[in-house]
Amino acid sequence: MAISQRFLLFNALVAGPLREHPGRAALAIVAIALGVALGVAVHLVNAGAAGEFELAARRLAGEADLVVRGPRAGFDESLYPRIMRLPQVEAANPAVEAEVPLAGRDASLKIIGFDPLRAARVQPGLLPERTGLMSGLFDADAVLLSPAAAGWLGVGPGGRLDLQVGTGTVTVKVIGLLPEGAYRQRVGVMDIAAAQWRLARLGRLNRVDLRLKPGTDVEAFRRELQATLPPGVYAVTPETEAQRGASLSRAYRLNLDMLALIALFTGAFLVFSSQVLALLRRRTQFALLRVMGVTRGRLAVLLITEGAVIGVLGAALGVIAGYALAVYAVSLVGADLGAGYFRGVETSLRVDPQAFAVFFTLGVLFAALGAAAPAWEAAHRAPGRALHARDEEEGLGRLRTAWWGVAAVAAGMAVALLPAINGLPIAGYLAIALILLGVVLLMPRLAAFFLDRVPLPAPVPAAVAVAQLKATPRQTAIGAAAIVISFSLMVSMLIMVSSFRASLDTWLERMLPADLYLRTARTGETGFLTPEVQARIAATPGVARVEFLRSQNLLLQPDRPPVILLARPIEAAAADSRLPLDAPPLVPRPDEPPPVWISEVAGDLYGWRRGDRVRLPIGAAPRLYTVAGVWRDYARQSGAIVINRELYIKLTADRLANDAALWLVPGIGTTDAARALRDRTGADQNIEIATTREIRAASLRIFDRTFAVTYALEFAAVLIGLLGIGVSFSAQALARRREFGVLRHIGMSRREIGSMLGCGGALTAGLGVISGLVTGWGVSLILIHVVNRQSFRWSMELTMPWLPLAGLAALIIAAAAATAAWSGRAAMRDDVIRAVREDW
Amino acid sequence: MLNVHDLCKSYGGARSRDVLRGVSLDVARGEYVAIVGESGVGKSTLLNLIAGLDTPDRGTIVLDGVELTALDDTARTLLRRSRMGFVFQAVHLLPHLTAAQNVALPLALNGTTPVAGARRVNEMLLAVGLAQAANAYPRELSGGEMQRIAIARALVHRPPLLLADEPTGNLDADSAAQVMRLMREQVKREGGAGILVTHSAAAAAGADRVLTLTADGLRPQAAQTNSDFRFA
User: Fold this and answer.
1) Kind and range of the H or E element at B10?
2) For the segment A145-156, what is each residue's pLDDT rounded down to a tens digit?
3) Confidence (pLDDT) at A104
4) Is B229 domain-assigned?
5) Residue A471 is nearest to which of B82, B84, B96, comparing CB atoms?
6) If pLDDT is split at 50, 70 and 90, which confidence band does A535 have?
7) Are B97 and A836 an interchain contact pair (Cβ–Cβ within 8 Å)?
8) Nearest-by-Cβ selection for A463 from B48, B95, B108
9) DSSP assignment of A523-541, as one string?
10) How far apart are CA A409 and CA A439, in angstroms?
11) B123-155 pLDDT tens trace
């Protein structure tokens, strides 16, 4: 009997309604599925790429207990025997590491120079067991490739590889492959001496991997060793080494995860709005069941179950679709999803049951939560009133108060002022969620305020539509809230991306004042211009002035990626003419430390301010510098420091350069000048020459590619929002079938009822769009000044993309009007005349 | 004024059922006719066919010389808008319009100017005794008051034909009597015709003519009785 009763109730309250309106249920399922799919896909791709990144670093460290790590320029190799002689060290393996540009290709390959015999003790899994290959590696031109690199380059054993060093080309011979599975990423391994010679790193090392004697306290030894290391060189554990690379993309990955969660949240809200309206329509059924003795709790549980069933179906579909989407996305744009963080990283997506379970649970939970509030309200409605009165609007009486909404918005604004948590903009996202929640709660009040001021228009269908909305502001608010959520997110992302793009464009204009730019390679670390080549460039006919720039890096903290050091001609008094400073430049007195100019990112990361004195490991000994200004830099996410090149050369004796900015003699064309430069340098394939316009266009292309995934996720949120509009209007249209029947009896044509619904839909969407525009603007300020600043530490000016916003608003309103009219047609397709006789 | 000839209607599906078979009816201007019959015999179907809300399988319906069965849906809608008024058992006032706005709706649909419309709405509200409730919403009115507003809405545009489907089915005896008297008075005053479909012998008693709808068609009722077909 109990089973039968349970079955009957489940059938009446859960299965029946889902069967009765499969379209509405399907839309809600699709919305949840879309949100879960995006979450699963973004997580799988990001986790896969970051995991591979960390795995690669761990494989390189092998069985090492500590890694001594220096900057890109490396450290003096005399450090190695000093470390090796320490009593706690059992084995040590020195290494040279560099991203080497591939001659004639716009790509680079990581080359590691090991001592093969020592590496066998610290990294036994990395090198091949076949002795022939090990001894072959001592050849100065020999290189071993990982299977991934060989596949990517299309070169096998016996093949040759052209590497760019300086502006010249070094050809190496592939003598074999690393064992399958030893190292999954693209890498080439050479003998250390050969690498130092061929890659122009004589006397330098980048890392030393240490295996300590059993019983050594690793942390104590690390601290002891650190105290003896030169500035800019750190002793770190393999774990820190592994996490450092992936840490750069942490904020980016979190932002993508958040966008995916927003899509899921929008889906949950869609379930909420559709459930509210559907349960209102069925309130007399619930009242009858309550009269017949069904308890409040039982009724609420069954109605939440209806949402959970939608969640289970949507989440299951979403997990499958998410995995397929991840596979497709990786094959289409790579493991970095177009952002450049994991360029060249080989990812194999793995089925991750734990992630699947988490997102499946989230999908079900969000859908059940979406159904919980309306279920609670329906269960607590007095059955007597619900049976007899036309109390749809009264059923939403709890929405009358505005205090919760005001409190949520105020809390959101307060939370937005909190600093980053563990370097991530958690508070910023929480602030956005609170503000969206607050605006949704305020929507009934806003709807009433707005609709009170709308006059009744002359055309009858429009007048009936307006009168209906005026009389039901709370129901109107629920319909509009779905639009507010999706449109405000769309608006905020659009404003943020437009502001970023406009600021980047202005920045590029400021940073690229010359006519022509020359660089040794787009990627990699071993391309450079020797003083002789620099002299030839300066003496090229048609070149009026040239400035050379040297790019190096400084490791300031072992757990953070290195800061880029840019040595270029710059005078303290006129620094603002060369860099986009945020304040007039400081000119240090002669007795003060020399000036450096730090990027905003460096300032934020290391807590430096204008006027501070900072100790930097430039040259043989660290010394103090004055922070003479803070400048905006969109190019280097790990931070940048500009120093006068003359001072840099004096400190380091490094006269090499990476880039040259060229001002041409008036009347000389850029094409002629580029040809002359190629002739003079004699390194046609190893230098790249571009005009300012070309660099700007390429930079903006990269920007757009980086934001492609953002656009895709944003589009998904909008799609879910539009589904929400469809669900909301179709639920309302079904609830109003009897009214349509009456209007048809009175003499209103189907077309007029359609235009009445279209007008209502447009007005509801208009309310949503206006509220969404204001909310989106507010959210964009948080994205720009909090989330973006805390994630990437880039500041930008607010730019309102009015035209796209107006276009989007018109599109949403038109889509809403069309959806409403279509919903009405679908509702009138059945016997609308019979609907006037329906009691329910 | 209204000529219904040999009307047939069946509903399809696996269990096809003839609802109306060879129904004919003539209603003259100024005449108030009641149609009674058992549940499911097709009274409401007949009313829907006359209103042009549904189309017959066979037969003709002519209203003031216009054959409804030859018109498309839009033309039938326009004809219904201007020449018919409807009163339902469940009242069906639009919940989000005030009493005055509900009454004004047919006038607005027929293009009456707002000033003339307001005057006529006021006239009708006075006629049904609810001028004071002009700005009330339906939820604020009693059942009888709502039905009186529905009658005002049905007659406000002076339709030649009033169609009423069980208009007193949900009302108590006093309210029902008041509504029936009001409807008859208004039809007579405006010079139109009225067709009332009902179970109730008491409601039908006020009609000029009472017809019984059976499976074989419409037949004049031989003698008035006090029996209530609701329990037949």
Assistant:
1) strand B2-11
2) 888 888 888 888
3) 76
4) no
5) B96
6) very high
7) no
8) B108
9) S-S---B-HHHHHHHHTST
10) 7
11) 989 888 889 999 998 888 888 888 889 888 888
Supply the ipTM of this predicted assembly.
0.71
Interface touch A837/B90, C-beta < 8 Å: yes
Confidence of residue A616 (pLDDT cuts 50, 70, 90): very high
pLDDT above 50 (res A3):
no
Distances in Å between the alpha carbon of A394 and those of A373, A400, A405, B146? 15, 10, 19, 20
**Min CA distance, A820 vs chain B (Å)?**
18
Q: Which helix (H) or strand (E) element contains residue B17?
A: strand B17-27
Whole-angstrom Cα distance, residue B32 to residue B210?
A: 9
The whole-model pTM stands at 0.74
CA dihedral (A261, A435, A426, A420) in degrees, to 10, reads 150
pLDDT per position as a tens digit, A566-592: 999 999 999 988 899 989 989 999 899
Reduce the DSSP state of residue A602 to 3 states and report it.
helix
Residue B228 within a domain:
no
CATH number at residue B102: 3.40.50.300
CA distances from A346 to A244, B67, B148 (A): 18, 78, 78
CA distances from A381 to A277, A287, A441, B49 (A): 15, 8, 20, 41
Longest Cα–Cα distance of chain B, Å, equals 53
B11, two tokens? 């509903």
Using DSSP's 3-state secondary structure scheme, residue B9 falls into strand
What pLDDT was estimated at residue B14?
57
Do the Cβ atoms of A746 and B86 come within 8 Å? Answer: yes
Which residues span the domain enclosing B134? 2-223
Pairing of strands B209-214, B17-27: unpaired
Question: What are B33's strand-pairing partners?
Answer: B195, B209
**Strand runs labelled E in A482-636:** 516-519, 543-554, 563-568, 595-599, 613-616, 623-631
B97 vs A464: CB contact, 8 Å cut-off? yes
- Indicate the number of domains in chain B: 1
CB-based burial label for A297 (10 Å; 0-12, 13-18, 19+): exposed
Q: Which candidate, A783, A773, A777, places its Cα nearest to that of A806?
A: A773
Give the span between the Cα atoms of A759 and A754, in whole angstroms.
8
The whole-number pLDDT of residue B224 equals 47
- Name the residue among B90, B106, B137 with its Cβ closest to that of A746: B106
* 3-state DSSP assignment of residue A142: strand
Q: What are phi and psi of A373, to 5 degrees?
A: -65, -50
Residues A550/A665, Cβ–Cβ less than 8 Å: no
All residues of chain B having their beta carbon less than 8 Å from the beta carbon of residue A460 are 105, 108-109
Instruction: Let me know: does A435 contact A780? Beta carbons within 8 Å.
Output: no
Residue B14 falls within a domain, yes or no?
Answer: yes
Strand arrangement, sheet containing A543-554: A613-616, A623-631, A595-599, A640-644, A563-568, A543-554, A659-664, A516-519, A688-691
3-state class (DSSP) for residue A509:
helix
Q: Which two tokens stand for residue B3?
A: 């000529």
Question: Smallest CA–CA separation between B98 and chain A, in Å?
Answer: 9
Beta strand A659-664 with A516-519: parallel, antiparallel or unpaired?
antiparallel
pLDDT one-digit tens code per residue, A782-829 = 989 998 888 878 888 899 999 999 998 998 889 888 888 887 777 676
Measured CA to CA, the distance from residue A25 to residue A21 in angstroms comes to 6
Do the Cβ atoms of B82 and A833 come within 8 Å?
no
Percentage above 70 pLDDT, chain A: 82
Which residues are within 8 A (CB) of A681 and not within 5 positions of it... i.e. 6 or more apart?
A167, A533, A536, A537, A687
The pLDDT of A165-193, averaged and rounded, is 84
Cβ contacts (< 8 Å) between B97 and chain A: which residues? 464, 467-468, 471
